[in-house]
Amino acid sequence: MTTPRHSRPFGLLTAALRLGAGAALVCVLSQGVAAQDNDDDGVLPVNGSGSVNDGSKPGSSGGSGNEAVTTQSDVLVAGELQDELDPARATLQIQSGQGDSELVTDAAAEDATFVADPPQIAAGDVGAGPALQASGQLHLHEGLQARFVPAQLASKSVALLVLGKDGPTLQAELSGATQPELVIPLGQAEAIDLVKLAATAAKYADVLPGYHATVVFVSVQAGEFHVAAVRARTEGGPLDVIVR
């Protein structure tokens, strides 16, 4: 029995559609519990408990890696804390599976949960735990909880799901320099569970090797556009992140 000439491309399209549907379902259903906001200013409350350690506190690495950090709940970031969170931009909210987490900056890249590139980051503590705004790679270590949260101060915020082949950088994809395989509008941007997104993409490692799913948030506030994105590959590995 001969195989029809177009069966392979058709099979890839079907698999891509299934991956798109699965990833879109994750985006819709994995919003999680939002931080409590008791006013109507559209900005999530900031907890002043000091959940970001810039290396100057006792027990921190002080820029020489994380050899002095002993608390398992610490979230290590290879990056330099240079700013506070901007509510008009998307954030990464990260917690370990050990309970309350503290975000420790200036960690060694080989030990870090998030490796910033460029190294400058903004960070703070929102109601749901420590959060950061930066570009780089997120390593989903075992037990980690991570959410991609859209801008909390925006007159309009939408989300897109983009499926494409690996190769071009996430920056190139956002600039429009690449041709995606599939683009799915998701409507209003909502927080998504990155662990579930990565797991959904990994299910297609055999049928769609070398592919990725990218969630893009686009928001506007006071006439300024902000774009943020996170990419999960079918073959696994760290997630690519851009927040700008």
Provide the fold topology.
Elements lengths: L6 H23 L22 E2 L20 E10 L7 E5 L6 E3 L9 E13 L2 E5 L2 E3 L6 E5 L6 E10 L4 H6 L6 E7 L3 E2 H9 L8 E11 L2 E10 L5 E5 L1
Parallel strand pairs: 1-4, 2-4, 2-5
Antiparallel strand pairs: 3-6, 3-8, 5-6, 5-7, 7-14, 8-11, 9-10, 9-12, 12-13, 13-14
Report the span from N to C terminus: 54 Å
Shape: globular
Number of domains: 2
H and E order: HEEEEEEEEEHEEHEEE
Q: Tell me roughly what share of residues is in helical segments.
A: 10-25%
Total of DSSP H or I helical runs spanning 4+ residues? 3
Give a short synopsis of this structure.
The protein has 244 residues and is of the alpha+beta class. It has helices spanning 7-29, 170-175, 194-202; strands spanning 52-53, 74-83, 91-95, 102-104, 114-126, 129-133, 136-138, 145-149, 156-165, 182-188, 192-193, 211-221, 224-233, 239-243. It is globular.
Describe what this molecule looks like in 3D:
This protein has 244 residues and is an alpha+beta fold. It has 2 domains: 8-33 and 154-243, no CATH class; 52-149, no CATH class. Helix content is 16%, strand content 37%. Strands 1, 2, 3, 4, 5, 6, 7, 8, 9, 10, 11, 12, 13 and 14 form a 14-stranded mixed β-sheet that branches.
Sum up the structure in keywords.
244 residues, alpha+beta, 2 domains, 14-stranded mixed β-sheet, 16% helix, 37% strand, disordered N terminus
